[in-house]
Every structure is written in structure tokens, then in C-alpha cells.
Amino acid sequence: NETADTEIYKDRSSAESEVYKRQETADRSSEEIEDSGNVPQYIYTAVLLSLYTGIRPNTLFNLEWRDWDSQAKTLTLRPQIMKTKDKWIIPLNKTATSALSDWKTKQEKQLGKGNVPSTIIGQKVSLNSLKKQFNRILVEAQISGVTWYNMRHDFASQLVMQGVSLYTVMHLMCHKNIKTTQIYAHLSPDLNRAGVMKLDAL
After folding, report:
1. Any bridge partners for residue 69, and if so which?
2. How far is CA 62 from CA 46, 110, 118, in A?
């Protein structure tokens, strides 16, 4: 969880190297899963959703198709599946939207439109089984030092390094307190300088 992992961010240099390592291993893990013919598509879908939404594993596992608004391109995170016990609505980018669309289309072809289970990922395996399969893939791909939760940290880290404000990241991560999000602050580019430089164009 965030509290347990704040320790790795206390030293700036080690934190940056850790984030870049996570970025590389996250990219490799998704590529390995995509390229492997014996990996169920629901695992690939779960990995993409983790990397591109940052939602917690337990929330991901309990998502239902009714939570996905394909027109608005959002996910509604119901209070009963959230650690914060609050309702959140998060936007989806093209990658996450495509992952959901492809998975649902495959399910409809296999089972029929009226027979698709209500849960998106949890219909197939237990959460522990999902993590075990993910770990097996990492071992086969010779990727070490990565857990499922690292993908949540990677999501936040990538946003901050791209210049997204901590306030926005806080809401995308469904943090109730900005202090939790501030563990990623050192990864932010020099936004203060970038801000005043905009005045040169006036």
C-alpha cells in the first residue's frame, strides 16, 4: 500500500532509479503477456487496466461491467469496492478503453451477449490466483522486483513525470489526502520555471 511504500521515495536518487526500473519492468511485463500465447486475455486486460488507471488490485478484481461507461469513457468505482469507502469516477484513456472493449467482445463471442458474467476480471479467478499467474509470467520473463501494486505506483509516477499536477494525480489515484500523493512530488519537472516562462510569449 502507499504507506508501506513511502520509504522507497525518501531518497531522491534511489527513488528515481526505482521509478525508471518500474517503468521498464512494467512495459516489459505487459509486452511479455501480450506476446505469450498461453496467457489468458483477462490477465492481459487486468494488467493494462492496472497500468493505465492505477486502481487498487481489490477494486480491479471487483469491477463489474455496469461500472464501465463506454460512451463517457469512465469507470465508476463504487464505495463498497473502494478502500476509501467513497464513490469515484475516473476517466479512461484509449488503451484502457480498448482493453475493456476487446475483452467484452471476446466474452460475447464465446458466451453470447446475454451470458457474459457481471464482473470484468473476478469472473475467472480469485485475486490470489490472479497474482500468482502474474508472478509466474514475471518469472518466465526474468523480471524481478515487481509486484502487482507496483503498477499503481507506476501510473502515478508516469503522470507526475509528464507534468500532471499533484492535485489531478490525487484524484486519479483516488487519494483522500494530498499528503499521500506528495510521495511522488520529487518526480515532477520544474513546473514553477515552466510557468513563468509562459509569460515570455505575451
Report:
1. 74
2. 11, 22, 10
Task: Please name the helix (run of DSSP H) or strand (run of DSSP E) that holds residue 191, with its range, or none.
Answer: helix 191-197
- Quickly list DSSP for 156-172: HHHHHHTT--HHHHHHH
Quick one: which of 3, 125, 154 has its CA closest to 62? 125
Burial class (CB in 10 A: 0-12, 13-18, 19+), 33: buried
Ranges of residues in the chain whose predicted pLDDT is under 70? 1-39, 123-125
**How do residues 66-102 score in pLDDT, each as one tens digit?**
999 999 999 999 999 999 999 999 999 999 999 999 9
**What one-character DSSP code corresponds to residue 39?**
S
What DSSP state is assigned to residue 177? S
The C-alpha cell at 118 is 457481471
All cell numbers assigned to 136 = 509466474
pLDDT at 132: 84
